[in-house]
Design a protein that fits this description.
The structure holds two protein chains of two kinds. Chain A is an all-beta fold. Chain A is globular, with a radius of gyration of 13 Å. By secondary structure, chain B is an all-beta fold. Chain B is about 0% helix and about 55% strand. Chain B is built from no helices and eleven strands. In chain B, the strands form two sheets. In chain B, strands 2, 4, 5, 9, 10 and 11 form a six-stranded mixed sheet that branches. Chain B has a five-stranded antiparallel sheet with strand order 1-3-8-7-6, with no helix packed on it. In chain B, a hairpin with a 2-residue loop joins strand 6 and strand 7. Classes of the chains: A mainly beta, B mainly beta.
Chain lengths: ~110, ~110
């Protein structure tokens, strides 16, 4: 069966510090991968998605970047965090080319920037 | 508009039925989804419906889709305290694009 992992689960970082959040998927190959941010009281905002190694699409201009160094690894980064980067970050995967393209979510990382 | 809209709060008594409503934006959306998020956790896919269906039932869950009005609802029969969570409606409107509502916080009172 497929599983998706995210770490860390929680993170508190000072403004201006770097960020690296990791997401890995097991049990599937060549998944589509996604990074979302959930702000309090708001829906999910798609930040990045990837259809393959090294292929990243950015949905919104921002302070964050994403990379996919391996087939089942997706990393969300920042060189200098802003207060507005605080939120709950969710990674998701879907089967490439599958009819339903249903997305399955990881447990999330709660980031607090102080 | 560009937003998937949901009421932010719903409170029901244990044993009653819950109905969570959603209005989506794109008439060409292919799939509509309901996700459940428990406190501090990621989103769990509850069910989805293809756009050419009017209804889908899965145990205590019933999804109704009105394409004309772009309205989606989730009914939970015999609601339990364990059903307390935030429920997100989502639409798929391109090959990989999804749009989520802000979530409805369901509170089940004993």
């Amino acid at each position: 069966s497929q599983t998706i992992h995210q770490w860390p689960a929680t993170l508190v970082q000072p403004v201006g510090s770097p960020l690296s959040l990791e997401c890995t998927v097991e049990g599937t190959s060549n998944p589509n991968l996604y990074w979302y941010r959930q702000a309090a009281g708001r829906g999910l905002q798609l930040l990045f998605y990837s259809v393959g190694i090294g292929q990243i699409s950015s949905e919104v201009p921002q302070n964050l970047s994403a990379s996919r160094p391996q087939d089942r690894q997706f990393i969300l980064s920042s060189k200098k965090l802003l207060l507005s980067d605080s939120g709950f970050y969710l990674c998701a995967w879907s089967v490439a080319g599958a009819r339903t393209d249903t997305q399955y979510f990881g447990p999330g990382t709660r980031l607090t920037v102080l | 508009g560009e937003d998937v809209e949901q009421s932010l709060f719903l409170s029901v008594r244990e044993g009653d039925s819950s109905v969570i409503n959603c209005t989506y934006t794109d008439s060409s959306s292919t799939y509509l989804y309901w996700y459940k998020q428990e406190p501090g956790a990621g989103l769990q896919l509850l069910t989805y419906i293809f756009s050419n269906m009017d209804m889908k039932q899965d145990q205590r869950l019933t999804v109704l889709l009105n394409k004309k009005d772009k309205h989606l609802s989730l009914r939970i029969a015999d609601t339990q305290t364990g059903d307390s969570a935030i429920y997100f409606c989502a639409e798929r409107y391109n090959n990989n694009d999804m749009r989520f509502g802000a979530g409805t916080r369901l509170t089940v009172k004993p």
